[in-house]
Amino acid sequence: MERKHCTAVVLAAGKGTRMGTSVAKQYLDLGGRPVVAYALEAFEQSPLIDDILLMVGEGQQEYCEKELVQRYGWKKVKKICVGGRERYESVCRAIEVLMESPEIGNRDGYVFIHDGARPFLTEDIIRRTFQAVQQYQACVAGMPVKDTIKLTDAQGNIVQSPDRSLVWQAQTPQAFSVPLLAEAFRRLMEGDPSGITDDAMVVESQMGTAVRMVEGSYQNIKITTPEDLAVAESILRSRQKLS
């Protein structure tokens, strides 16, 4: 079977207000490199990924071209585009580029959507996600939760304690067939997109498609708060000792 075209979409348009810094979290220094550089390099080095689309904030395109793409010599980053204020807006714009851009032109392959603030993406995670999207057309990297989870009402009263063995923490990449994701977002934008927090929700709600969970890694954290950055620095130091 011929392998379909695979595009990685790296989302780096967020402002990261919870980090409390003037620099967006995806551009903070981590081991001498911007946080987003690690995910981009993982996709650059993966033999499963054909090209990369980087979605950034308004006014960040020149910085990313010079300080990331040119500085590190990446060849797979075919386009740097301005994303939206919300995640779903950035993904929607990315889909338009996938479908229309001659630099990428991926209408019937697979797309891997990844948070730019998750620096510890590995080839193993990419490969597991690739294998799952080939089989199921929609999958999400994640890990089973370690703690007992409680669901509450609006007043903070516990109303349910779900079976921990069935509860996963969603991560990225989230991978989909391009036609499936494109149709899901087309339907979403015709209605009310508020409340959407990840791409799997769109496919689930708009298409009724089952989305497969795939093993990610407990180290595949998203840097959102200063505490997360401290954890990331610790993970990076441990990895450097092992390399």
Percentage of residues in strands: 15-25%
| Fraction of residues in H or I helices | 25-40%
Give the spatial strand order of the biggest sheet: 5-4-1-6-10-7-11
Largest sheet: 7 strands, mixed
Summary keywords:
globular, 243 residues, two-stranded antiparallel sheet, alpha/beta, seven-stranded mixed beta sheet, Spore Coat Polysaccharide Biosynthesis Protein SpsA, Chain A
Compact description:
The chain is of the alpha/beta class. 37% of the residues lie in helices and 23% in strands. The protein has one domain (6-145, 172-242): Spore Coat Polysaccharide Biosynthesis Protein SpsA, Chain A (Alpha-Beta Complex), CATH 3.90.550.
Account of the protein in words:
The chain has 243 residues and is an alpha/beta fold. The chain has a single domain, classed as Spore Coat Polysaccharide Biosynthesis Protein SpsA, Chain A (Alpha-Beta Complex), CATH 3.90.550. Helices cover 37% and strands 23% of the residues. It has seven helices and eleven strands. It has helices at 35-45, 61-72, 87-100, 123-136, 178-190, 199-207, 226-242; strands spanning 6-12, 29-30, 33-34, 51-56, 77-82, 110-115, 138-144, 151-152, 158-160, 168-177, 212-215. Strands 5-4-1-6-10-7-11 form a seven-stranded mixed β-sheet, sandwiched between helices. A hairpin with a 5-residue loop joins β8 and β9. α3 packs across α5 and α5 packs across α6. The chain is globular and about 50 Å long.
